[in-house]
Structure formats: structure tokens, C-alpha cells
UniProtKB/TrEMBL annotation:
It catalyses: 4-CDP-2-C-methyl-D-erythritol + ATP = 4-CDP-2-C-methyl-D-erythritol 2-phosphate + ADP + H(+). Residues 75-153 form the GHMP kinase N-terminal domain. Pfam families: GHMP_kinases_C, GHMP_kinases_N. This is 4-diphosphocytidyl-2-C-methyl-D-erythritol kinase. The lineage of its organism: Bacteria, Bacillati, Actinomycetota, Actinomycetes, Micrococcales. Catalyzes the phosphorylation of the position 2 hydroxy group of 4-diphosphocytidyl-2C-methyl-D-erythritol. It comes from Janibacter alkaliphilus. Keywords: ATP-binding, Isoprene biosynthesis, Kinase, Nucleotide-binding, Transferase. Coiled coil: none annotated. Belongs to the GHMP kinase family. IspE subfamily. The gene is ispE. GO terms for molecular function: 4-(cytidine 5'-diphospho)-2-C-methyl-D-erythritol kinase activity; ATP binding.
């Protein structure tokens, strides 16, 4: 016999990866976080999260790097769904099916994307009406990057990255992402290396750079290339020297610029256009400099529910 649970349709939401066009890091705060002045851009690599009514909470993960993603209560999508249930009074557990395209522990915020997708999928499934500000605050409890993945586009992140202000941006940027083979990098470990490198020195409060703002307003990839920066890059490269080699290869093969994405180790290389991005991707793999490349454009929108396929 078909149960009432099975009759209720599942909801799928899709959320993008991000790259930090600028990542200015301030001193370590008393709560262990660092104040940031960052400019996020959402890019067209996506994870999909399907929320289905279930008898108990759970999740399964398929797709890229699925084996290194926790499926217990440490999964960020599950953390987000349970928090939303708690705050909204929703009582029905869900099973989350996560399909990953975003490299895991790569500095592209895949776990945060899954959390953002789980929030919008569950909000729809449970018919939860929540003000945007409240959802942002809840998202920030799950992780500093999660509010941005709800918004998408191009935006400034302040505070610990959770305070998001949209930025006027023009044009489409063509990126080639090079995941560095191996374990990935732990975000806290990279921040700890930043602290160790600045031991005994004053770290000033970060401010969003005028250069990157005017570059994204211009829509000119060369202007953006000149403005890209990441204060965590020296630390990520010191922890995984292979990153430096990949950045060098990307520049040699015609990237306008190449930086570490967030806390790394994925390398984000900016190309002048679509053809240049294809050429760069081919050169990187054909030369053996990269085992794997992912092309994506940005900006793209944030987490959103996908239309339910109509049954005919
Ligand atoms: C570095 C960045 C850049 O956008 O992204 P990733 O490279 O991880 O994707 C972010 O700051 C990561 O954000 P997110 O991954 O959501 O971090 P959280 O879960 O909030 O925090 C994990 C840990 O990172 C460190 N952390 C994070 C954010 C911040 N502003 N200062 C920190 O020091 C803290 O050690 C914290 O315990
Ligand atoms: N749904 C999820 N997808 C990916 N990683 C997750 C997820 N939930 C929890 N994690 C954990 O978060 C860590 C960081 O993953 P991720 O968000 O992909 O990288 P980053 O913080 O570098 O952007 C992973 O090592 C993994 O243990």
C-alpha cells in the first residue's frame, strides 16, 4: 500500500559554487573567526539536493568526490535542514539526496552550497514562510559562506563572510577551475597557517578594494584579472606546493590571472572569453599540468528550487 509520505512529491534545489575575487583577511577575533572583506562570485558548477519526506532524518551522496562527504549528522545539508525544521516547527523528517559536481574541500564552498540548497528545498517542501533576513541568519549559523550561496551573483561579504551585500556587476566571466588531486585543504588549517605567518605582527582590518569593484562594474575580464587577490594564497600554497605549479602552468597557457579559490586548493584561472577558456582547459590537461579541469562562467544565481518534472 502507498503511504501518505510517498504521495508527497520530493523537492529538488540547485546551488552554485563560489570563487572569491578578493579575499582580504583581518586579525583573528576572540571567537576564533577572522573578519573578512571579500567579493564573492557564484559560478556555474552546481550541486543538487533533493528533499523527500521520510520516516527518519538521513542523507545519501552521489557524484564527484562523494566518498569523502560525511552522511551522518556532520553533513552540512542535513545540519541546515534540521535547523530549519527546529526553527520553523516543521516536524516531518526528510531524506536528502545530494548530487555533487563541486569539488569537495576545494575552497569552492560545496558543503555550503548543499546547505543552501537544502534550506530552499525544505522551505518549499514544508511550505515554510520565512523572511529573507531570518533565513540568512539561520544560514550563517550553518557556515559563514552559506548566506552568499542563497543569494548568488556577485556580492561583498563582510563580518566573518556571512553579511552579504550585492554588487553591481556586468558581463560574464569565463573560468577554468583546476582541482588539485589529493585530500583537499581544511579551511581552519589554512586560517591557522595565516595566523602563524602573521605571529607577532599587526594584521590590519580588511577593506573591500575599489579596484575589484570597478572591474566587475566594467565587465572587462582583463581589469578583473588585475584586481584578483587572496590573502590566504601564500598559506594554501605553503601547505600544498602543487598549487603554485598549477598557477604557473595556467599563466603559461594564457590565463589572464590564476589564484587560489578561497582557502584552496582549487586553482581558479580567468580566461579572456569562452574560446580562450576552452584552449586553456585543453592545454592544461594535454600537457599533463592538470589531471582534471572544470569550466564554468559567473556570475550565476544562488540556490533555487528546480521545476518538478510533470508526470504525463
Ligand atoms: C575561506 C572561505 C572564503 O570564502 O571559504 P572556503 O575556502 O572554505 O570555501 C570562508 O571564509 C570559509 O567559510 P566556511 O567554510 O563557511 O567557514 P565556517 O564553516 O564558518 O568556519 C570554519 C572554520 O574556518 C575558520 N574561519 C572561517 C571564516 C572566517 N571568516 N574566519 C575563520 O577563521 C574558523 O576556523 C572556522 O571554525
Ligand atoms: N554536503 C557536503 N558536501 C561537502 N563537504 C561536506 C558536506 N557536508 C560536510 N562536509 C565537510 O566539509 C568539508 C569542507 O567541504 P567543502 O565545503 O566542499 O570545502 P571548502 O570548505 O573548502 O569550500 C569537507 O571536508 C567535508 O568533510
Amino acid at each position: 500500500m502507498t503511504s501518505a509520505l510517498e504521495l508527497q512529491p520530493a523537492v529538488t534545489a540547485r546551488a552554485p559554487a563560489k570563487v572569491n575575487l578578493e579575499l582580504g583577511v583581518g586579525p583573528r577575533r576572540d571567537d576564533g573567526y577572522h573578519d573578512l572583506a571579500t567579493v564573492y562570485q557564484a559560478v556555474g558548477l552546481h550541486d543538487d539536493v533533493t528533499a523527500a519526506p521520510a520516516d527518519e532524518w538521513g542523507c545519501t551522496v552521489t557524484g564527484r568526490d562523494a566518498g569523502s562527504v560525511p552522511t551522518d549528522e556532520g553533513n552540512l545539508a542535513l545540519v541546515a535542514a534540521r535547523l530549519l525544521a527546529e526553527r520553523s516547527g516543521a516536524r516531518q523528517p526528510v531524506h536528502l539526496s545530494i548530487h555533487k559536481q563541486i569539488p569537495v574541500a576545494g575552497g569552492m564552498a560545496g558543503g555550503s552550497a548543499d546547505a543552501a540548497a537544502a534550506l530552499v528545498a525544505c522551505q518549499e517542501l514544508w511550505s515554510v514562510a520565512m523572511e529573507r533576513d531570518e533565513l540568512d541568519r539561520l544560514a550563517a549559523e550553518v557556515g559563514s559562506d552559506v548566506p552568499f550561496l542563497l543569494h548568488g551573483g556577485t556580492a561583498v561579504g563582510s563580518g566573518r563572510g556571512e553579511l552579504v551585500t550585492p554588487v553591481l556587476a556586468q558581463g560574464t566571466y569565463h573560468w577554468v577551475f583546476v582541482p588539485v588531486p589529493g585530500e583537499g585543504l581544511s579551511t581552519p588549517e589554512v586560517y591557522a597557517a595565516f595566523d602563524a605567518r602573521h605571529e607577532g605582527r599587526r594584521v590590519s582590518e580588511p577593506t573591500p578594494g575599489a579596484e575589484v569593484m570597478s572591474a566587475v562594474r566594467s565587465g572587462d575580464p582583463s581589469a578583473l584579472a588585475a584586481a584578483l587577490s587572496n590573502d590566504l594564497q601564500p598559506d594554501a600554497v605553503a601547505l600544498q606546493p602543487r598549487i603554485g605549479e598549477i598557477i604557473g602552468a595556467a599563466l603559461e597557457f594564457g590565463a589572464l590571472a590564476a589564484i587560489v579559490s578561497g582557502s584552496g586548493p582549487t586553482v581558479a584561472a580567468l580566461a579572456s572569453g569562452q574560446e580562450a577558456a576552452i584552449d586553456l582547459a585543453v592545454s592544461l590537461t594535454a600537457s599533463g599540468a592538470a589531471e582534471d579541469v572544470l569550466r564554468a562562467t559567473g556570475p550565476v544565481h544562488g540556490a533555487q528550487v528546480l521545476p518538478t518534472p510533470r508526470l504525463t
